[in-house]
Design brief:
It is a single chain. This protein is mainly α. It is about 75% helix and about 0% strand. Helix 1 runs parallel beside helix 3.
Length: about 70
């Protein structure tokens, strides 16, 4: 059976960016922030563009802790 062709570097980068965006949005949601203003969306995009996934996961974890009152 032929194997699927690997994702192109651009497609992989796009998927990782989408994944980081999902992680951050989930963290914001767990912190109780659901209705984001345009400036908030810009801030999320800046974080997604500027940090690696591990750092973003830490930030999301901190937001989760803050939202749960622990």
């Amino acid at each position: 059976m032929p194997q699927a062709a690997p994702a192109s570097p651009g497609k992989l980068a796009e998927r990782m960016e989408d994944r980081r965006h999902q992680v951050l949005m989930a963290g914001l949601g767990r912190a109780g922030l659901h209705d984001l203003a345009p400036d908030d969306v810009t801030a999320v995009r800046s974080l997604v563009d500027g940090v690696d996934e591990t750092t973003l996961r830490r930030i999301a974890h901190w937001m989760d802790l803050a939202g749960s009152g622990r």
